[in-house]
Each structure stands twice: as structure tokens, then as C-alpha cells.
Write a structure and sequence with these properties.
single chain; 566 residues; alpha/beta; TIM Barrel; Immunoglobulin-like; 2 domains; eight-stranded parallel sheet; five-stranded antiparallel sheet; 18 helices; 22 strands; 28% helix; 17% strand; globular; binds alpha-D-glucopyranose
Length: 566
């Protein structure tokens, strides 16, 4: 796509995964085909034409494997089979071919760091069966004293004492997610085989879950007790991590033309460079978190603080600038299955629902990085009004709420309601609102998690019929990204590094120059961008009658404009 002698944001060759728009599917909440209340793979197949119409190129599907679902599939019991509630391997094969028929590729989430405690390796390891003793991190010792002070990402200690083996095992997440011991060459071989199994099926790549925490230091030293997630400095980018990631690439991934994106915990651009491209460990890109941590207080994820536009602008710009002309390609996302809904978090889900949902979509689809759109954000889905503990499903949120009750910082749900409504991962996991019918058209049965009452107003059926909907705007912007190579490969220049509300940037590739101006506020914002030159046409705007005088731009609440420049 891109001429070889032009200055671009990356110095590597053009590649399909750089040009792709990725759409994340969380299958249990996508579409239920059989009325059991749980989304499934045939349900995704039923919506293949919808995905095609949307115009996306790649689907990232969160774990579809057999699992007890203590952490919604990130606790895998069998890497080579599909969860019964989702269907079976024939359904999976059918999905792959239906997507490929529509030129849509499929990448799978692969959890390398941990399994379920119900995986046969853990069951054997717990009983110290021959050859399996060292598949996990086991430490013997006082049953009342964990081996160190590390905490789990879901709160509480990262170690659980196992009465069968009479030893502690490590779990950086839920106690039903024991960490695999990657020091053991047998574990590495097993995981390489799993990755190869799926590549041989013809999938198009992987999103590697929390990939950079796979290496733990010998002796498990205590972490900084004041850190948000205690122990992170020891297990993120740990001592042998490049051997493990590079080894996976050399042994397996390098033989396939696939997309690989690693989810980096606490990752920096500097670390990302070491994981990516031919000069690094071979991954294509990493998923990073700086811009989504802007509303964390000292206590981390559950400690909510106000944020400024300048923080998200700086965080995302830093990644572009530091990865520019390196072997590491960039990613951009605003929402995932782990975050609140983007229009509720970064926009205004009430008065400026359309305007802010489309402004956020404009950033996502014009930014210099492969964009990842989370299911439902293309119709502007909103956070759920949680009102009781019984409605909640997520292991992280329920654990935090239990802890608040145990520690007496909460006496009734109302004491935690605001935090849960803002922060719970369940906000992203309520079913896709296909229509205004019962259960939002997601299922004929009882949904596994409540459907958002907003489905009556915000749903696909309504938006599909309207040209002034969030959905139509996303379709147009995806098409624009496909048509304008400057949006993929063009150099990024930040034009407003100190404006309190406006984020404007230029993307240029050879003679092509585009300007993106975004107003991140529920009021009109004025800005002078005359230094950027003359507008020749308007490529996108979420309001009627946008002006083109760059010297006196008045951007209406959450207005987004994309201009072509002379
Ligand atoms: C990743 C997943 C998240 C999961 C965690 C543990 O962050 O995105 O959903 O809970 O890893 O596997």
C-alpha cells in the first residue's frame, strides 16, 4: 500500500496487520444462538454479515477454550477444545471459514502465563505425578505464611496453600489460575505445541494474554509494599522473559504470516521495542496501558480520580513518538472487555452520547497504530446501573466488593455502587444490544449477565437503519481508514500540546496531509490551527455544517473533524 521511499511512522515493510482494523469479540456476550443465555460460536456466525458490513478486517476473540470460567475463559482447562456452551470444534472451523470467505481474519487470545486449576497438568502437579512436579510455581513452607508479599491482580495474596501437595502455589490472578512455571523446558514445549496446534488450523494470529509476566525471579523476592500491584517490579519483564518470547517466535511463530500482539502489564515503549520486530523477540506489537491508567489513584484500579485530556493525549503521543521508526508497531484501543464502556468513561453517555461516542471513534480510527474496537463501542454502548451484588459476575469486581465488606469499608451495596458502576469490568460484558426487544435481542433465554436497560434506545437494529447513528459513523470512518494510507502509515504531528480540551494532530505521507481535530468537552472550544495550512475538503465530521477556517475553529461539544489539507 505504502510507497517505499516515503517517510512513515514505522520503518518496516507494509503489512496487512498494520492496515487492519481489529474488532474484539467477547463470545459469551456477543450473540446466543441456542437460548441458554450464553453467547456462542454459532451466534457469531449468525452475525458474520454484520461484521462484514461494519468493515473490520480482523476479529480478536477472547478465549473460546474449555474452562470452568472462574475468570471468564482466561482460566483454561483444555487448550485444544472449545467450551461446550460456545459449541464445538466443528463450529469453530465453520466460523473460521465463514470469516475467511468474507476476507475477515481471526486471531485468538492465548493465555501462556497460567491455566485453570482444573487443567490436567495442575491436577497431576498437585499430586506430584511423575514429570509434572515442576509445571507450576510451588513453594513449601509454613501454611500460615505465604512465601512472599506479592498480591494477585484481583486483590488478596498471590499465593494459595494447597492441602493435597502441602505447599503454596503462585497465582498472579484468581486462585483458580495457577501460574505455569516457564523455567521448566517441558512447559515451554507444551505451550509451543498449543500455539502450533491453532496455527495449523489456519487462524491468523494471537493476542497473548499478560505475556510479559511469564518469567519470575528465582527466590521470589518480596515486592515494594507500597506498590499498587505488589511484586510487579519482579514479575513484569522478568529475568528470562526474552528467552521465552523469542523462543516461541523462533520455534513456532516465525514460520507463519500471522499477527501477534502481546498484552503488556506495566509495559514501557522501551520494553516494547525489545519484544517486537526482527531486532527484538519477533512480536508485531504490544497492547499498553498508560492511557487507560489516567483515572487511577495511588491505590490503583479501584481508586478513582479525575483525569485531564492532556493526560490521555500525552500518554498516547508518547507511545507514537517513542516507537516511531523502530521495529515495534503501535496499537490503540480505548475499551476492552477489561474496562468500563468508553462513552461512559471518556465521553458523556447522556447529553452528548452520539457526539462523544463518535469523537472517540474518530480518535481510534485516525490514530497512528493498529486500532482495536471493542464489541458494542460501535453503537456507543454505556455502563450498566449496577444495583446489587447478585447482578455482578466478574471475579475481579466481586472479589473487591467482598474485600470491602470483610474490611468493613462497606456495609451495604450503596457504599460501593459508584465505584462498581464506574469501574467494574462487567460494564463491558453486558450483552450486545442487537435490538430494543426483550434481552436486547441477545438471547431467547435468561442472559448470563443482565442486559443494559439502555438497549431500548441504543441498539444495532435502530442504528443500522439510520445514517446519523454511531454505527454509520464507525462504518464511514473504517472505510476512510482503508482509503487513506496516510491514516495508517503517515507521520503523526501533535498540533495542540497545551490546549485544555482540544486534541488536534496531522497525519502526513508524501503529499497527503490530513488534519484531525477533536474537542474533548461538553462545551464549544476554540483553537487556531492556521499554521497547518489550508483545508481542501472535509473527510469526516460528527456535526452538520463544519467550518473550514483553521484560524478560527470553533469546535462544538465533542465535535470531531477530519480535513484534507492542501
Ligand atoms: C488479561 C485479560 C483479563 C484476565 C487477565 C488474566 O488482562 O484481558 O480479562 O482477567 O488477563 O488472565
Amino acid at each position: 500500500m505504502c510507497p517505499a521511499d516515503t517517510e512513515t511512522i514505522g520503518n518496516g515493510e507494509p503489512a496487512w496487520w498494520k492496515e487492519a482494523v481489529v474488532y474484539e469479540i467477547y463470545p459469551q456476550s456477543f450473540n446466543d444462538s441456542d437460548g441458554d443465555g450464553i453467547g456462542d460460536i454459532p451466534g457469531v456466525i449468525e452475525k458474520a454479515d454484520y461484521l462484514d458490513e461494519l468493515g473490520i478486517d480482523v476479529i480478536w476473540m477472547t478465549p473460546p477454550y474449555d474452562s470452568p470460567h472462574a475468570d471468564n475463559g482466561y482460566d483454561i482447562r483444555n487448550y485444544r477444545s472449545i467450551l461446550d456452551a460456545f459449541g464445538d470444534m466443528d463450529d469453530f472451523d465453520r466460523l473460521l471459514s465463514e470469516l475467511h470467505d468474507r476476507d475477515i481474519r481471526l486471531i485468538l487470545d492465548m493465555v501462556l502465563n497460567h491455566t485453570s486449576d482444573e487443567h490436567e497438568w495442575f491436577r497431576k502437579s498437585r499430586r506430584e505425578e511423575d514429570g509434572y512436579e515442576d509445571y507450576y510455581h510451588w513453594v513449601e513452607g509454613d501454611p500460615d505464611q505465604p512465601p512472599n508479599n506479592w498480591t494477585s491482580g484481583f486483590g488478596g495474596p498471590a499465593w494459595t496453600y494447597d492441602d493435597t501437595r502441602e505447599a503454596w502455589y503462585l497465582h498472579l490472578f484468581h486462585e483458580k489460575q495457577p501460574d505455569l512455571n516457564w523455567r521448566n523446558p517441558e512447559v515451554r514445549r507444551e505451550m509451543h505445541d498449543v500455539v502450533e496446534f491453532w496455527l495449523e488450523k489456519g487462524i491468523d494470529g494471537f493476542r497473548f494474554d499478560v505475556f510479559n509476566v511469564m518469567s519470575k525471579p528465582e527466590g521470589y523476592p518480596d515486592g515494594d509494599p507500597d506498590g499498587g500491584w505488589i511484586g510487579m517490579e519482579h514479575f513484569s519483564d522478568g529475568p528470562r522473559i526474552h528467552e521465552y518470547v523469542g523462543g516461541l517466535y523462533d520455534d513456532v511463530l516465525s514460520a507463519y504470516d500471522v499477527m501477534t500482539v502481546g498484552e503488556g502489564m506495566d509495559i514501557t515503549p522501551r520494553a516494547a521495542k525489545r519484544y517486537c520486530g526482527p531486532s527484538g523477540d519477533g512480536l508485531n506489537m504490544v497492547y499498553h496501558y498508560d492511557h487507560t491508567m489516567l483515572d487511577y489513584g495511588d491505590g490503583g484500579w479501584w481508586d478513582i480520580v479525575d483525569w485531564e485530556v492532556s493526560e490521555i493525549r500525552e500518554a498516547l503521543t508518547k507511545w507514537v513518538q517513542q516507537l516511531e521508526v523502530t521495529d515495534a508497531w503501535n496499537t490503540v484501543y480505548l475499551g476492552t472487555h477489561d474496562t468500563p464502556r468508553i462513552v461512559s468513561r471518556f465521553g458523556n453517555d447522556d447529553r452528548y452520547h452520539y457526539e462523544s461516542a463518535t469523537m472517540l471513534g474518530t480518535l481510534l480510527l485516525t490514530f497512528p497504530a493498529t486500532p482495536f474496537c471493542f464489541q458494542g463501542d460501535e453503537i456507543g454502548m454505556t455502563n450498566y446501573p449496577w444495583s446489587s451484588r447478585e447482578e455482578m459476575r466478574d471475579a475481579d469486581a466481586t472479589n473487591r466488593v467482598e474485600l470491602a465488606f470483610e474490611e468493613d469499608s462497606a456495609e451495604e451495596f450503596a457504599d460501593v455502587a459508584d465505584v462498581v458502576r464506574y469501574r467494574s469490568r462487567d460494564n463491558a460484558r453486558t450483552p450486545i444490544q442487537w435490538s430494543g426487544d426483550a434481552a436486547g435481542g441477545f438471547t431467547d433465554g435468561e442472559p448470563w449477565i443482565p442486559v443494559n436497560p439502555a438497549s431500548e434506545e441504543i441498539n444495532v437494529a435502530d442504528q443500522r437503519d439510520r445514517t446519523d447513528s454511531v454505527l454509520s459513523y464507525y462504518q464511514d470512518l473504517i472505510e476512510l481508514r482503508h482509503n487513506e494510507e496516510a491514516l495508517v502509515y503517515g507521520v503523526y504531528d501533535l498540533l495542540t500540546d497545551d490546549h485544555p480540551r482540544v486534541w488536534a494532530f496531522e497525519r502526513s505521507l508524501g503529499d497527503e496531509r490530513l488534519l484531525v481535530a477533536l474537542n474533548w468537552a461538553g462545551r464549544t472550544s476554540r483553537v487556531d490551527l492556521s499554521d497547518a495550512g489550508e483545508v481542501t475538503s472535509i473527510l469526516a465530521c460528527n456535526y452538520d455544517d463544519p467550518g473550514t477556517d483553521l484560524g478560527a475553529l470553533a469546535l462544538r461539544p465533542y465535535e470531531a473533524r477530519v480535513f484534507r489539507l492542501a
